[in-house]
Amino acid sequence: MLKYNFSFFFLILPLVGYSQMTYEVEADVRENSIVINKVAMEMIDDENYEKAANLMEMVIQDDPTFHPAYLNFYRAGGQVDSKKEKVIQTLREGLKIFEEDDEMSYYLGNILQRENRIQEAIKAYSDAIAYSKINGEDYPLVWAYHFNRGNCFLKSNQFKKAIPDYTYALNLSPDNPDILTNRGFCYYKTDRKPEACLDWNEAVRFGNKTTNKYLQSFCR
Predict the structure, then answer these.
(1) DSSP H helix total and E strand total for the chain
(2) Tens digit of pLDDT for each residue in 123-142?
(3) φ, ψ for residue 207 (rounded to 5)?
């Protein structure tokens, strides 16, 4: 069993740009958080998700300002049915500490979308998008914030709302066949067949061969 070692030395962590609260973290606790996180990542790579999730829960309980633990708890716990609601709750608690954290909001949106909690997912993705405007859109995942909010609009038959998200995502991730496929579908559902067929042709050209079924069915 992994055990924490305790001492009288503390790390004082003012979370600049996040919560205005100040947290005290014992130096040995943070050191152990780093070690345990590495072990959990190896477990995730081996698809030992439940044990990895349990380790991350322990880290978050004892060291709530250790940011990687939240992301790896999402990676592991999101694969375990009995942990999914706990992951949602934990990410929401994390966002009270790491305010305006676009990546954490994005992961919250992902698990909510997978659980078919679409309106909650849209809210989480909208937060991620808003925070990315503050933190900078050069982060590699930002295109996916828009893509996945668009997917939520698509799933809830809000096709007109989805199109601007897909267009923005495409600006950040040019030539992305999945974005083109989904935007094409929304174009078709909003009576914009020429744009739909153009997107689907481009999607096929950039590698999404399954989009051929749309071309064959709707673009002859």
Answers:
(1) 11, 2
(2) 999 999 999 999 999 999 99
(3) 120, -5
